[in-house]
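User: structure tokens for Phage tail assembly chaperone, please.
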Amino acid sequence: MEATFAAGARRLAGGAGRLLGWPPHWFWQATPAELAAILDPESEPRGDGIDRAALQRMMEMDDNGR
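Assistant: Done. Predicted tokens:
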């Protein structure tokens, strides 16, 4: 399983570098959902998203880095 994961990750990282111009650390910092959204921008959005007020409430609740 490890060799299969490593080979797949290497292929995806190489593809992200060639197609998107990403350095390796951008690939490793991206989530699978982010990579899929970039590679398939025409896909249907999932859910209604959030409005600015909800985003502001979430940011106020987050004390990460304070």
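User: Anything notable?

Assistant: The longest helix spans residues 2-20.
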